[in-house]
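so my prof wants the structure for this chain in the tokens format not the other one, which i didnt know existed until like an hour ago. anyway here's the sequence
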Amino acid sequence: MENLASDLISLKPVYNLIELKLEEYEDNELVLDTVHDLMQFFEQSNCVYHQVPNKKDLRTCYEKVRFKRFFERHFQIRSLEKSELELFLKAQLIALEITNDKIEVHKKHNYRYCYNHSFPLCKPVFLKLYGINDYYLFAIQEHLQNEDIIERTHRNTGRAPIMKDKVFLDYKQYGIINRLSSPMKHKNESEPFIYLPVGSTYISIYNEFKKHFDSKDKKDKKIISYFTFRRF
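here's what i got, hopefully its the right format
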């Protein structure tokens, strides 16, 4: 059985992040597993948008949004706390709700699922984008209709999201090992604070970092990606 599992893992395709325009992301297990999961989802023709009658745009959701945009939004949503995800999802549902001004009391609530205003999505792809199932979406919609945007209470409160804790600890440990300075995002009271000039951005600071790195004779070392740098 173990041999079969290892064979299945070895059959996983090798993805080139540069070809997917994801070069700013680290080539690690979390990123590659997410890429593989999304690739499998779209290859299995889960999109049903083109099957809806009277649609002028016959492209699939994948063809409209494209992989890079979908991956980045999906990856960001996965890093949210459960309460943050629910609040964000409720805000999206409020914006996506289809209302009829002629009807004062709406007994049935309908939604137009979208990636953004320009890219409508079918429901299966919308669920995949948020990493949720139909039952969870219905529960959020029902709570929104009855309680508005008030936070839901859960029986299993106190359970931390596993993925986000692992990512945070990984980067914190990375900074300690490599003796990186501690910015305000993960500040350490024993170190001086770093104040940046007004108008500085993540990318501008990263470019300065690259120039400094390139000016040194460090041919045997590889510079960290923009994605890793931004995490600090």
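also thought this was worth mentioning. The chain has ten helices and four strands.
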